[in-house]
Predict the 3D structure of the following.
Amino acid sequence: MTEAFVVDASLALAWVLPSQASSAAEALLARIESGAVPVVPALWFLEVANGLLAAERRKLLTPAERHQALGQLSGMRFTVDDESGHAAFGRVSALADEHRLSVYDAVYLDVALRRALPLGSRDRALVAAARRRGVSILG
């Protein structure tokens, strides 16, 4: 099996939104299809579902395409990291403050740091913060 990695919502949306597609996103999706199981905080599911709904409302997706994307993503396996949610008022908020991230983005950095895993993200601020903390970036 391929090495585990943390994936944020921005990258997952690139898997299912044609306007966000990239070769880096496709390469990480191929790793998952080859057996890698990405690690995500519980928040990931809410962020991705909301991103798809927002894309539909902005007419970037039809309702049928959104439901197809939800089905595709729900068929994938993920390791859910629940620890960061419990650390939202402490460690995760401190990371957000230190790196000028939202708490939502800092949770991905926290998971990557704690588990010593690379991070897949399209979010520039999160990628920059991860690099400053020595986290390997995928894509």
Summary: The CA atoms of residues 113 and 134 lie 9 Å apart. Strands lie at 6-7, 39-41, 79-81, 119-120, 137-138. Residues 43-57 form the longest helix (15 residues). The longest strand covers residues 39-41.
